[in-house]
Design goal:
9 helices; eight-stranded mixed β-sheet; about 15% strand; alpha/beta; 8 strands; Rossmann fold
Length: about 250
């Protein structure tokens, strides 16, 4: 039996990048999925690819994480389609990466806080009653930019460190309900990272030098599989942890 067979998960930002890799890892282990994002065409392409390769059911719905009403509709959509919710992976995030702190505008800062911190908060809040029913799991995404202080990542790091703090509190508050909340700090090679590498080569070189294995992780094989484990019954004893994935190596700061 596959690790997530019979389970249903919401994966935010599941139409591209790390989120798409995580979605494929969940589908490979038998999970049915609701994937969210802001662009329906990307979500529909992801649905087609995942269903064709893995045979699980994927339902896409557009939702901006910073808009609470859209989040409520997305969670209700998941329950309507599958009748329950076993896991929530909060991956979606937008930010002004590469912009130094003194050059940030309020709009830049708001972009990171609304899409990341508020998006995670809204999805957790509205998923809670259904996760309580299944004694489910939440996997939230933070970042090494916050753990280690990466240049040009101030608003991104601020949003992600907010997510880490909120997640640790939720792990304690929701533990009596049987809900586990953990944090993954991924570093993976995606199309977006390729663009960042081209735009900010010096920052890229500084980042790769700090990685013990000298490589970025794979969205599905490295990041996705860790998320699968944390959402599975095998991790029923783990909550409130931060797992930093730097080039395939796992740290617990």
């Amino acid at each position: 039996m596959k690790r997530l067979e019979g389970k249903t998960a919401i994966i935010t930002g599941g139409g591209q990048g790390i989120g798409f890799g995580v979605a494929k890892a969940f589908a490979d282990e038998g999970a049915d999925l609701v994937i969210t994002g802001r662009t329906l065409s990307k979500l529909e392409r992801a649905k087609e690819a995942i269903e064709k390769e893995y045979g699980t059911k994927v339902e896409p719905i557009t939702a901006d994480g910073g808009d609470e009403e859209q989040v409520k509709k997305a969670v209700a959509f998941a329950i309507e389609k599958f009748g329950k919710l076993d896991a929530l992976v909060n991956n979606a995030q937008n930010s002004a990466s590469g912009v130094m702190l003194v050059d940030h505008t309020k709009e830049d800062f708001d972009k990171a806080i609304m899409s990341g911190l508020y998006g995670t908060f809204f999805f957790m809040k509205h998923a809670y009653p259904y996760l309580k029913e299944t004694k489910g799991a939440v996997v939230n995404f933070a970042t090494g930019a916050g753990l280690f202080g990466k240049l040009g990542q101030s608003s991104y790091a601020a949003a992600k460190e907010g997510i880490r703090g909120m997640s640790r509190v939720a792990a304690r508050e929701w533990g009596p309900d049987g809900i586990r909340v953990n944090i993954v700090c991924p570093l993976a090679m995606t199309e977006g990272l390729e663009q960042w590498k081209t735009a900010y080569p010096a920052l890229y070189e500084a980042t790769i030098k700090d990685i013990p294995l000298g490589r970025f992780g794979d969205p599905q094989k490295d990041i996705g599989r860790v998320c699968v484990f944390l959402a599975s019954d095998e991790a029923s004893y783990i909550s409130g942890e931060t797992i930093a994935l730097q080039g395939g190596s796992a740290l617990r700061p």
